[in-house]
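Can't paste images in this forum, so I'm doing it all in text. The chain is below; anyone willing to post the predicted structure tokens underneath?
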Amino acid sequence: MHLAKLLRRDLARCAELERILFPGDDPWSESAFVSELKRGHFYLGAYDEQERLLGYAGLALVGHPPRAEAEVHTIAVDPEYQGRGIGRALLRSLLNKADEWQARTFLEVRTDNDAAVALYREHGFEVVGVRKRYYQPSGADAHTMMRPASSTVEEGGGT
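Text version of the structure:
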């Protein structure tokens, strides 16, 4: 598996994975991914040896150091390949980009997604709020989590 810039040719596959992974909520469409790339957000794909897309992740960066902020827009991995470190590798790459900008990083995650919450905590994120009924149409709540800018991440925390 290797990570590379997400290509437009892979956006239909992203939308397909969204429908598989988030059937009870509002999965992103191909056009939503097109819009993200057009805005210049940082998106990566995880690819196998045959260049098949196994997962993807995206990050938005705004502002400039020392007041830069980043927001993880998405991290997703094909269910057949989950548990192999792909999501962790994607997250680390997003955080490396945020660290280049010395950006505080935010994300939302379902409150019932214990594995994802644990992964984010391992990388220096803390819960800073709850968004009631954030995910639609399921109405699931989301934690808002934040990781301090790289200059304030403690030793042993972060990436």
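The first strand starts at residue 2 and ends at 5. Strands lie at 2-5, 42-47, 53-62, 69-77, 104-110, 126-135, 140-147.
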